[in-house]
From TrEMBL:
Organism annotation: Acidovorax delafieldii 2AN
Enzymatic class: hydrolase
Family: Belongs to the acyl-CoA dehydrogenase family.
Phylogenetic classification of the source organism: Bacteria, Pseudomonadati, Pseudomonadota, Betaproteobacteria, Burkholderiales
Cofactors, names only: FAD
Reactions that this protein is recorded to catalyse: 3-sulfinopropanoyl-CoA + H2O = propanoyl-CoA + sulfite + H(+)
This protein's UniProt keywords: FAD, Flavoprotein, Hydrolase
Span of domain Acyl-CoA dehydrogenase/oxidase C-terminal: 224-372
Enzyme nomenclature, EC number: 3.13.1.4
Pfam entry (one): Acyl-CoA_dh_1
Protein name: 3-sulfinopropanoyl-CoA desulfinase
Residue intervals of the Acyl-CoA oxidase/dehydrogenase middle domain: 121-211
Chain ranges of the Acyl-CoA dehydrogenase/oxidase N-terminal domain: 10-116
InterPro entries: Acyl-CoA_DH_CS, Acyl-CoA_Oxase/DH_mid-dom, Acyl-CoA_Oxase/DH_mid-dom_sf, AcylCo_DH-like_C, AcylCo_DH/oxidase_C, AcylCoA_DH/ox_N, AcylCoA_DH/ox_N_sf, AcylCoA_DH/oxidase_NM_dom_sf
UniProt GO MF annotations: acyl-CoA dehydrogenase activity; flavin adenine dinucleotide binding; hydrolase activity
Length: 377
């Protein structure tokens, strides 16, 4: 990255931070409390073109690279993790840019970049989360088209999104990716999940009951869906790592503010050695996580095969940091940290799921170990 690039990224970060402060933060507590999508922040994000950030300019996007995507997610997550998730979930259909036809791209992508439609993907099922290749949702050929049957569980934007990228078994051992619209006959949704955190992001089952799709709803090769989704998950893990990093950074900022203002025994608690030691550990976790994430992003943008392992490391490091930092943030707020009046309570609840989704941290560690052992001595 040359100096001009560094300056551009810094300016972009400043813009995102101002946007988060002015347009996202004022609604964060209400979105969590009311368990509703962050409509105000999402609509405001359209003015900056954030839902279309990674898409090509020719389709209404901004051609934003991976680093700019991660910066945006981190800055929004500092104040409202649900908003960051809602905006960045619009990028799921980058798979259409990677594997779709020009007709599919021109039909669907502008709907996303203009904010006319939202999207989600359907991977997890009732009996399988980490075992993605154990998916039982089936897609059967029907003339020139397909018929889909199955249930997808824990779907972010379930019932709120218009387009769903569905992972379905097409043969005994092969899978395909399909573009399903919420208005397709046979599509229905389960009740909204009642969650510990990310309450501003709707989650529900997506139920596919003999959903008939025309041939042009298949994405790419009907037997290469596993390959496609592996690449999509690599990109998504960098996004989720950024999401967790933003939560951690936000909790650290809230803690610095609170400990600088809160007085005990006649002085700010920020002057107590134990407090300073805990805050130092929080800062170490945030900065080491950010450095690892940016290293992973650099490898990804360079097309380096090592990006896969570094993305998993970044996902683990950032999400573990988010959980540890938010827990300490609540502790350092004392009794106030346990109240909904303070943002760290929400941040702690939001942080937990980052260790679970997009491949649990236990699964990530297995993947990392495999890659480490495969490195030649």
């Amino acid at each position: 990255m040359n100096l001009s690039d560094s300056q551009a990224y810094a300016a972009f970060r400043d813009t995102m931070r101002r946007f988060a402060s002015d347009k996202v933060a004022p609604y964060a507590a209400a979105v969590d409390r009311e368990k509703r999508p962050p409509i105000e922040a999402f609509e405001a994000s359209l003015a900056l073109g954030l839902p279309g950030l990674p898409y090509p300019e020719s389709l209404g996007g901004q051609d934003g690279d991976m680093l700019s995507q991660c910066i945006m997610i981190e800055e929004l997550s500092r104040v409202c993790a649900s908003t960051a998730l809602t905006v960045s979930s619009c990028w799921i259909l980058m798979a259409v840019m990677d594997y779709g036809t020009e007709a599919q791209q021109r039909e669907i992508v502008p709907q996303i970049t203009r904010g006319e439609a939202r999207c989600a993907w359907g991977l997890t099922e009732p009996k399988g989360g980490s075992d993605l290749m154990g998916a039982t949702t089936r897609a059967v050929r029907d003339g020139s088209g397909w018929v889909l049957d199955g249930t997808k569980r824990f779907i972010t934007n379930g019932g709120w999104a218009e387009w769903y990228l569905i992972f379905a078994r097409t043969t005994e051992k092969r899978f395909g990716l399909f573009l399903v619209h919420k208005n397709d006959p046979g599509v229905s949704f389960g009740a909204p999940e009642r969650k510990m955190g990310m309450r501003g992001s709707p989650t529900s089952d997506v139920i596919l009951d003999a959903v008939k799709l025309p041939a042009d709803r298949l994405l790419g090769d009907p037997e290469r869906g596993a390959e496609y989704i592996t690449q999509a998950l690599l990109r998504s893990r960098l996004h989720i790592a950024s999401h967790a990093l933003g939560i951690a950074a936000g909790a650290l900022e809230e803690t610095l503010r609170y400990t600088g203002e809160r007085e005990q025994f006649g002085k700010p608690i920020a002057r107590f050695q134990m407090v300073r030691s805990m805050v130092a550990d929080m800062a170490i976790r945030v900065e080491s996580a950010r450095a690892t994430l940016h290293r992973a992003v650099s490898l990804y943008q360079a097309g380096d095969p090592q990006a896969k392992m570094l993305a998993s490391i970044a996902k683990v490091l950032c999400s573990d940091a988010a959980m540890a930092v938010t827990t300490d943030a609540v502790q350092l707020h004392g009794g106030y940290g346990y109240l909904e009046d303070y943002a760290v309570e929400r941040m702690m609840r939001d942080a937990k799921v980052t260790q679970i989704w997009e491949g649990t941290n236990q699964i990530q560690r297995l993947m990392i170990a495999k890659d480490v052992y495969d490195v030649p001595a």
